[in-house]
Amino acid sequence: MSWQDYVDTNLVGSGHCHYAAIIGVDGGGVWAKSEGWAIEADCPAIVEAMTKSPDDLFAAGLKLGTKKFFTIQAENNSFYGKCGTDGLAMACSKQAIVIGYHGEGPTGPNCKIVVEQIRDYLLGVGY
Question: Where would one find coiled-coil regions in this protein (predicted)?
Answer without folding.
Answer: none
